[in-house]
Amino acid sequence: MKLLVTGAAGFIGSTFLRVLAEEHPDDKIVVLDKLTYAGRRENLPADTYLQVGAIEDPIAVREAMEGADAVVNFAAESHVDRSIAEQDVFAITHVIGTSVLLDAARELGVSRYLQVSTDEVYGSIDEGSFTERSPLDPSSPYSATKAAGDLLVSAHAHTYGIEAVICRGSNNYGPRQYPEKLIPLMILNALHGDALPVYGDGKQVRNWLYAEDFSRAIDLVLRKGNPGEVYNVGGPDETFNLDVVQRIIEATGASEDLIQYVTDRPGHDRRYSLSSDKVRALGWEPSRDFATGLTETVEWYRANADWWAPIRSGDYRAYYEEHYGLKLG
Ligand code: NAD
Ligand code: DAU
Q1: How far is the centre of ligand 2, averaged over its atoms, from the C-alpha of 83 (Å)?
Q2: Can you give the pTM of this predicted structure?
């Protein structure tokens, strides 16, 4: 297959490229990525063909998509906090960008389109788990614009018959995640003896999924999923945020005194939980429980200061200090 993979210079997309290299070494890959603050050339495996460009740019998209059999769209602004501060770029990438990709896929006769999406489109759930038939009820500008992108994908599949599928993942973690997200932020702060900023009471629940496992599910749905359908991919464990922080404290040997309760995120979703029965029926299952994956992730960040040192000394520091009102050491 020849695949166009958008947003693959980011965290999950670059993990997906590693899974493809292992599982389908003969596939030809073109990456289209805007290289935002979260997209880094050094995330890409050596010899990846990268076209720098935005998915909302129809000319760049047609150039990158020419001759592709399939498109996998990871490109996104992925951070909920940033969407609360500034939503325009979320709407442009998730809505306009998805629309441009779908139009080009239809015009160029691409046979398969996979939209990478999120459990956040369903909103928060106090008990039980969301299925693919649960109504969309997004709460943040991030999830609202992701939901809009999903609806465009479904509408294109319905109206034009393009073979599109949607994969909705729960919270991912693992190597190369930008340290604005809970797990890498807490690991790096713990390793540096910086404050560990917990939003609200820390009793929010997330359904943690190792990024390699999500990537394997995406690969499976791309090749075996039913056209026009949605597949949820949830992690094997549900954990309170505070428990995640405690585990990171234990794994790094940091002091519990570093925990600092800070102002809660506006509109903060309390709990996410996905039923993954449908993707499991295709043959997927997670390879790691949260304890194993978290230990490996802490070790990766310990061993890869070359990856994170330039981030912690750059614009990220200004973002962090403004967002949290806290200093990094
Ligand atoms: P990320 O922020 O690490 O990477 C996003 C990538 O997209 C970056 O390389 C960035 O440069 C690129 N990008 C952003 N806007 C673009 C544009 N307009 N045109 C082209 N490239 C653009 O994000 P991630 O965590 O790897 O998330 C990837 C996808 O998975 C997203 O669609 C996200 O919604 C979804 N998702 C993420 C999680 C999670 O926990 N991180 C969970 C479920 C689903
Ligand atoms: O559920 C899937 C989603 O998971 C993806 O679609 C998003 O792209 C991804 O960013 C993630 O969203 P969350 O908002 O759940 O992730 P984040 O890592 O920002 O926060 C996880 C939880 O930790 C959430 O309840 C907020 C809390 N938190 C986060 C940070 C950064 C804190 O308590 N302190 C923090 O400093």
Answers
A1: 12
A2: 0.99
